[in-house]
Each structure stands twice: as C-alpha cells, then as structure tokens.
Amino acid sequence: MGDVSHTSLSPLPSSDRADVAARLRDALLGASFTADGLLDLLGAPAYAALARSETVPALRATRGDAPLETLVRLFLLQQPVPHARVADVLPVQDCLESGWLTRAGADEVAATVDIRPYGGPGGEDWFIVSDLGCAVGGAGGIGSREEGVVLGVGGASTTLAGITVRTPVSSALDLGTGSGIQALHAAQHATRVTATDLNPRALHITALTLALSGAPAADLREGSLFEPIADDETYDLIVSNPPFVISPGARLTYRDGGMGGDDLCRTLVQQAGDRLSDGGYAQFLANWQHVEGEEWQDRLRSWVPRGCDAWIVQREVQDVTQYAELWLRDAGDHRDDPAEYQARYDAWLDEFEARKVKAVGFGWITLRRTAAAEPSITVEEWPHSIEQPLGETVRAHFDRVGYLRASDDAALLDGHFRLVAEVVQEQVGLPGAEDPEHVVLRQHRGMRRATKVDTVGAGFAGVCDGTLSAGRILDAIAQLVGEDPVLLRDRTPAQIRLLVEQGFLEPAE
Question: What is the pTM of this model?
C-alpha cells in the first residue's frame, strides 16, 4: 500500500518500507521510548495529563537533550527538534526519505504522525500511529475536525481490547480498524488477521502501526461494515469499535455512523452471525437508543442474529442533553461561535425528538455462534466497577451458558463444582444477632458481582472443591440442619443454577 493523503491532513509515511520501520523501531526501543520509559521520564502526573491531551507538564519534563526527551518532543508533543539532536537518536535520513519525518525550517525536523508507546498484555512494547494531535480521542477533544482524521487509542479502544476473548484462532476480523489497535492485539493469537475501514487513510495507518510494533502484516480491505468480506468468508473472531455515535448526519468519519439513529450498530450485529465460524465470537462496542414506549432490552434482543448466543451489557446511560454535549465537546464545537454551537445542539435534539429517543445507552455486545436449538440471550445493566481484562470472563460466561443449557436439575445434582477464586462471604444483620439476616457472596475479580444466598446456598458454595457431587453435599447439609434431604435436593438446583450462571461456581469437570 503506497502513500495516502486526505484533504489537508499531512502526508503519511510510506508503508512499503518495512526496513525503515524496523530500524525506527529499534531506535525507539534503544532510547526507552516505551510506556514504562515514558512513565519513568515524565512522572505519573505528566504521563496522565498526556492521556487527557494536556501537554504542558510533558513539555516541562522534556527540557533537556537526552535521547528520550528528544523523541517525546518529536513524536508525542509534535515540536520541531534540531536535526543534529534527532540524528543522534534516529536514522534521520531514512525517516525523512520514507516520510516519518519532514524538514521544518533550515535546521529542524518534525514528525508527520503521532507515535504513542503502548504496552501489550504480555509486556510487549508496541507503538500506535495516529494523525498529529489525535493520539487520544474522547470527550477531551482531539484538536482536529478533518473528516478523515485517524485517532489513536482512547478509552473505547482499550475497553474493547480488554473484553475480547484471546483464545488462539485461525482467523480474526477487525471491522473499522482505525489506527489498528484491535488488529495488533488479534495478531498475537490469530494466524490470519483481516482489517477493514471505510477510510483508506486508516488502513494506511494500521499498516504503519503493525510494522512499527513488529507485528505481522494484516490483510487490509477498504469498505464499510462487511462489504469488503466475501459471502463465503467466515472468522473465528470478529471485533469492532465502530463509529457508533448517534448523531444528525455523518460529519466525522471516525465517529459518526452515517445511518439513522442506532442503525449502524444494529446492522453490524445482525450481519455478524453469518460471518462467524462455529463457536466463533463477535465482540462490539455500541450505542443504542432508549425509545419512548419500548424496553431497551427488547430492542437489543431484536438485534441478535439467529444461531448465536448473546451477552449484552449496558455500562452507561445518558439523557439526550448529556449525550449531545459529550460529542459536541469531543469535536471541539463548544469552542466555536456560540450561535453555531447552539444550532448544532438544536439539530441533535431535533433528531432525538423526531425519533422519540429519551436516552442513549453504551455498552458491549458479544455473540457466540452456536448450534443449540434455543440460543441464550442475556441482556443486563452493569454500571458497577469491573476488573479488566475480561476476555477470560467472557469466554467462561459462554461456557457456563452451554453447560447449563445441557444440564437439567438431575444433572446439576450429579455434577461436581468448584468455588471460583477470590469470592468472599459477607454476613448482613443486626449487631449481636444470633443469625444473619442474609448472606452475600461477592466476587473480587472480573465482573465483581454480588449475590444474596440463603444459609444453605452459602454452606454449599463454601464446600465446593470439586470432590463431592452437589447431591452428596446437599445430603450432608440436610443431615446437619435436620432437613429432609429429598426436599432440599428439590429446592436447591435453582440456586445452584444461579451461582453457576453468575460465575460464583464452575463445573469441576
């Protein structure tokens, strides 16, 4: 893929010079231009400020002439740097010829792209390429409203990377790849990675991200949603952080879907089913409308394609005014003429009013291809704290769905279970009371769920180590509490099923 430019955006480095990318990578690593190196140089406050697109603390911390300070000024802060200083650190002539650097004045050079160190899940030192001034997206604003601008890693990107199931697969598809962060993660556990984007500039930058990070090249295809994918192509993993913002029009390619309301997210989810291999996962971030007279859960259930289990988690809800303000600020519209800002705000509210939208939800949608006659669809609201990465938690959820679907009450009683790691028990009641009012089991990992159980449920969970069957444990509990074992066996499977479903217990087989 050759050089790509887009309107007034700066020309991009060549993606055909793998040799230059490799030498540049070696030079960056040699100067400790890594996530850990930046933290050591800048300190936590300045490092955190960079994630908010605030550069003053980092400028103050890089007033010396050490190699790492030079690279931070050049690639993170986009400051012109004397040619001689850069030549001490980088293969400057190669970088100028291939377009990573450009001349700025008589004796200075400047970066053509933002290069942001990024620590991989296994301690890898990666580099995410994005347009100048666009390393961080989100509510802080990106400093550019060019239609084809390519952002770096924001909170949505890292959220999706964290929830993605990371089992080894033959093929992975990253829809709407942007700067290539999801494709980069997928390259670590997929034999073949395909990355698509409507914006050719994004595909070019993805190629740069992969090359500079030392990852294998991906199959890059231009087009919207599944258009670049042949009808007979299927994948073991599909991921997408799509342009999910529900807005009037499609002003910003990186953000606005260009379809009415939440139609882009709905279309993406509905079409994913036919593109999944048996047992394959599709994982998306999405926004969805809360419409008057309609349950939002029903709306999302209607999106799930046939032949797929689904787990949909709503993480946040904003009323339409909060939502409009968030994304108007994201684009920097609040810095415009007040009358123009008001007109744009009005247009967003007009759009929501016409569609009878009262709020907008944000969250995750995961599909798993199944041959089950009755697929499982779980839709829940979970605004509480979680522990990333959640990929293993997601995989385990669907494994439990399959186990419970195949297990009637008799099978549950014959089954052997283990209490998962880092579950604690809390007893709630009045001080000095002989017995607690109720018992709560709480997870300290993953989704960090809590569930109320009775004393039998708490006792049962506490002795589950995989040794005895559930029925044998209940018989022992019945003897201890003086209860009829037949009645206890009859009423407890529902509680066992709930504890398995929510991830407190796991089958020991």
Answer: 0.94
